[in-house]
Amino acid sequence: MAKKQQASACESPARVDIGGQAVMEGVMMKAPHAIAVAVRKPDGTIAVEAEPYHSIAEKHSWMKWPVVRGCVNMVTMLKMGMDTLNKSTRMLGVLEEEPSKFEKWLAAKLGKSIDKIIMGTAMVLAVGLSLLLFVFLPSIVGTLVNQVSTSPIVVNLAAGAVRVLILIAYIGLTGLIPDMKRVFQYHGAEHKTVYCNEHGLELTPENAQQFSTLHPRCGTSFLLLVMIISILVGAVADQLIMLIFGIPKMSYIARLARSLLLIPVITGVSYEALKGLAHAENWLVKALRWPGLQMQRLTTRQPDEAMLEVAIASMQAALTLNDKILAQRAGKAVPEDAPDSPPVSPAVITAVAEDIALEAQPGAEQ
Q: Residue 39's beta-bridge partner residues?
C-alpha cells in the first residue's frame, strides 16, 4: 500500500479550490459555481443532489475586498451549513415522519415548515452557545486577570487560552458521541477526496485513501486561527482604548463590548491568514500551519472505502455541474458526464440555463 502522505495544495496542479463539509452519513462538496450533497442511505445506495451556487459577492464587488470577504464568507458558510444539514437529513429520510399536532400548529402559525423552524432554532441556539463559551466567559477571565496585571497582552493571552481550552474540550467531548465519530470519519473522507482532486488523480477510493485526513484549508484550522488572532487584535485594541480614554484598565462591560465589535475584524483577518497559509510552502508557513493541522486530529478520523465512495460521488457531482455552468456561460457545448459521474437533475440544468440567460439580458445585475 502506498505510504500515507500529507499533501499540500501548493504542490498540486493549478485547480480551483473545492471546499466541503461532513454531514450525517455523507459529504457536501462546493465548487465555485455548484454545490453537491451525497449521503449513504440505510439501504446502502448513495443519494446525490447537486444545484448551482450563486455567491452574493458576484453582485457586490466590495464583498470581495480582503478582510471583508472573510466576514461575508463566515455568514454565507453558516447559512449554507445549516441548509446542507437540513438537506442531508431529508435525503436520508430522517424528516419524513409525520409531524405532531403541536408541530403542525406551530408551522401553521409561523408560516414555515417544521424542519425550517427546527433548523432556525438550532442556529440561534448554536450562535448563542458560541457567544457564551467564546466571548462572555473569556471576557470574565480577562477581567479577573486584569485585576492583577495591567498588560494587555497578558490579559488577552489568558482569555485566549480559555477559548482554546474550551474549543478543545468541546470538540473532544463531541467526538465521544457515536454518531459524531462517523461524521468525523466522513470529514476525513472529504479531506482525502479533496487532496485526490487537487493532485489530478482519478477519483477512486484507492487513490484517495493514500492521502492525509489533515488539510490546510479546513474549518478547524480556521477556528484555531481565530483564537490566536483574537489575542493579538484584542491586545492592540485594549491598548488603544486605554490610551484614547485615559483609563488604567478595561472593565468587564468594556471588554465584552470590544470583543463583540471586533468579531468581524478578527474573522476577516483570520480568513486571509488561512488562505495565505494554505497556498504557500516554506518552513515558516509550515510552522504556522502545524497547530491547526494538529487540531484537526480531533475532528477527523480515518474513513473506510464506503465513506470515500460517498465523498467521491459528491465531488464528481459538484465538478460535473460546475463544468456545465462554466461551459454554458462561455457559450460552449455542455460537456457530457463522465461514465462514473452521478446524474444531475435535468431540472437543475434547465434552471442554470435560465439563470445564465437572465444574466445576459441588458440591465441585469452584475
A: 26, 47
The Cα–Cα gap between 226 and 201 comes to: 33
Number of other CB atoms surrounding residue 75 within 10 Å: 12
For 297, the grid coordinates are 486530529
Residue type, 78: L
Query: What residue has cell string 444531475?
Result: 344
**24-52: string of b/e by CB count within 10 Å (b at 16+)?**
bbbbbbbbebbbbbbbbeeeeebbbbbbb
Cα–Cα distance list, 173 to 135, 156, 178, 187, 210 (Å): 20, 26, 11, 17, 28
Q: What is the DSSP letter of 204?
A: -
CB distance 233 to 163 below 8 Å: no
CA 259 to chain centroid, in Å, comes to: 22
Partners of 23 in the beta sheet? 26
CA 94 to CA 85: how far, in whole Å? 11
Grid coordinates belonging to 231: 489575542
Query: What residues contact 218, with CB distance under 8 A and at least 6 apart?
Result: 191, 292, 296, 299
- Alpha-carbon distance values, 328 to 17, 49, 50, 95 (Å): 21, 20, 17, 35
How do residues 57-98 score in pLDDT, each as one tens digit? 888 889 989 999 989 988 888 888 888 988 898 898 765 556
3-state secondary structure of 308: helix
To the nearest whole number, what is the mean pLDDT of the chain?
83
User: What percent of the chain stands above pLDDT 70?
Assistant: 80
**pLDDT tens digits for range 180-202:** 999 999 999 999 999 999 999 99
| End-to-end Cα, the chain, rounded Å | 50
Give 250-305 pLDDT, tens digit per residue: 999 999 999 999 999 999 999 998 888 887 788 888 898 999 999 999 999 999 99
Contact 214, 6 (CB under 8 A): yes
Q: Residue 140: count other Cβ atoms within 10 Å of its Cβ.
A: 14
